[in-house]
Specification:
It contains no helices and 11 strands. It is globular, with a radius of gyration of 14 Å.
Length: about 120
């Protein structure tokens, strides 16, 4: 079984920054892709960002383009999410996810097999 552990969430004022990390364990080879999703009490889970493991291609939701950066450390099976210029609407529980190389598009949560427990990000005005 693959386990994902997120860290780095917290409370920050609008315009501030946070960095999230997610470490995958329980697998000997790298995932096809890893990504971040978020969910608040009023909405369904939504895509934030993803990165392919082999080539490092990145994908972002329109709402975070230019503000968030996803990156990876292949040797550590770790994915990061650098969040800058945070807005109150970014407030949500952020989930790390991992998947194999095949499946539906990377911005769809149903394509991911493994999920972390989530970390709370709260942005105040």
């Amino acid at each position: 079984q693959v386990q994902l552990v997120e860290s780095g969430g917290g409370l920050v004022q609008a315009g501030g920054s946070l960095s999230l990390s997610c470490v995958a364990s329980g697998r000997t080879s790298g995932p096809g892709a890893m990504g971040w999703f978020r969910q608040d009490p009023q909405k369904e889970r939504e895509f934030v960002a993803a990165i392919s493991w082999s080539g490092g291609s990145t994908y972002y939701a329109d709402s975070v383009k230019g503000r968030f950066t996803i990156s990876r450390d292949n040797a550590k099976n770790t994915v990061y999410l650098q969040m800058n210029s945070l807005k109150p609407e970014d407030t949500a529980v952020y989930y790390c996810a991992a998947r194999g190389p095949r499946g539906i598009p990377l911005d769809r949560s149903r394509g991911y097999e493994y999920w972390g427990q989530g970390t709370q990000v709260t942005v105040s005005s």
